[in-house]
Each structure stands twice: as structure tokens, then as C-alpha cells.
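Q&A log
Question type: sequence-to-structure
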Amino acid sequence: MILSRNEWSPLKRIVVGSATHANWPVNDPVFAKESEKTTWTETPVPRGPVPQWIIDEANEDLDGLATTLMSLGVEVIRPDPLNFQVHDGMYNYCPRDRLLVYGSTIINPAMMYPCRDMELQCYHDIVDEAEHYHFMPRNEGFVLDAANVCRLGNRMLFLESSSGNRKAYDWLCEQFPDVEIELCNFYAGVHIDSTIVPLREGLVMLNASRVNFDTVPKVFDGWQKIWINEVVAQGFHEYPYASKWIAMNMLVVDPHTVICDRNQTELIKTLKSYKFEVIPLELRHSRTLGGGFHCVTLDLERG
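Response status: OK
Response body:
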């Protein structure tokens, strides 16, 4: 069953990603072009197979996340395997990027990196469950990673960035004519889920380095706001594919339970002050592979 329209209702069914055969694309032209824009100059953007020891440790952490979710009564699904190293793809580490679930509908977006289209074949069984399925055409100027969208019940946020353009926003509005989709462009990076974290109806966590009082999306008028000014920066191997703010990337299990990076002691204290039960886990390679707890999951059913 596919039924999920916000980020906080009690979690019933979810995909947890996999790092198996993770790879940095060699021949994807957009990946190469975006790599030229990096502000990190100490080491080059990686190319080719991810070191096996990183894959092994990442999978160990993902398996631990899956076990934790199952202990909470959540049904966990893992993506079908695909050898991305052979096919010069990327990975199944971040299922959140690949598909957008809203209600009983699945959107298959035209992702920023064309090589990531191949990941769809790892989710065929899931796509078949959707009541409605919409395919965003490739090579017609649309660009959208699903993680540019934040679901808020009868409303959504769309981050306009290099991984989500205005044409894709207009297309998404056409698919959901009865849903208010607010466009925001306060952050020049890619995905929205290390900047805005809805914790439950009426309470949102905001990255104060990217959002200020004047740029908070209008949808959060009247909501309580938790401003995060600093996090504990995690280490990385050779190149930081994600910024330190991946530490804010957390998974809400229900309106009172959150899975959070165990190294974020001050952040955890803050969450507990709002009466959350915090489950501290770790993704050792969240910066190296570019995905925190929200990124490496895709909720299919909440209720």
C-alpha cells in the first residue's frame, strides 16, 4: 500500500537504502559539469567505484537502521540490487532522491544526473503498488530530484535549485492541482531536507545558516520554529559530498519519535526539550556518500 502525504505521521512502511556497488559516475555529463562548480578545492571530486570498506560500513549502518525500524513495528523494504559500478550509475543509498510519494501517487522525476534514472528498476514492485503514477519526461528541460520536495499534508514545499528547476515546479503543480505547492529558493544547494525539517504538525526545525526570519516559507506562518545555528561536523573520506548540515537530516518515526545522528548532543537535547523520544544512531559515511537518515529512506505508508 502506498499512502504517505507528510513527514511526521506514524510510520508504517518504508524503504531503507543500500550502499552495495556504490559508484561515482565517470561518464554522466551533468555530474561532470556540476563537479566543476564545487567550492571544495582540497581534493578532487571522486570518480569510479566507492571503496569497498566504505560500502561495507555504510551497509552495516543501514542494516542497523532497518533493524531499529522493524523493532518499532515498521515494515522495511530494501531496493533490488543493481551493479552501479558496471553500469556507471550511482547507488541505491538515497531512495529519497529517486521517487516522490504523495498520498497514493508516485512521481518518477527527471533527476539532475541522468545516470540515476537506472535506479528506477530497483523499485519496480513499489511503483506497481501506486494508485497513480506520473512520469516526468526526460530531455524536455525538466530537472527534479524528489528530495527537493517537502510534504506537509495538503501543502508542499518545492526548493528551486540546480536539482529542481522552475519548469519541474510548474509540471508538479499540474499533477496536483488541488495541492498548494510553495516555491522557495533561499538555498543555492540541492535538496531541502538538511534545511527544513518538519517534526510534527505545527513544529519545524530550520537551518539558521540558510533560512532567516524574512525567508521562512509562508506555509510555516503560525508554526513553532526551532532555529539550529550549529551542528557537530562529521568526518568524511577524501571528499565531502554532503556539507556538515547533513547532521540535521533526520527521520521522524511519529510525532513524538525521531531518529537522529547520535553525535549531535546539543541537537538531541533540543529535541528532548520538545518532548521527543530521540533514537540516536549513526551513518558513518553520511558526508562521504551524501545522505542522512531522511535521505537513505523513503516512506511508503504513514497513518
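Response note: Helices lie at 29-35, 52-71, 84-87, 95-98, 124-129, 166-175, 265-273, 286-289.
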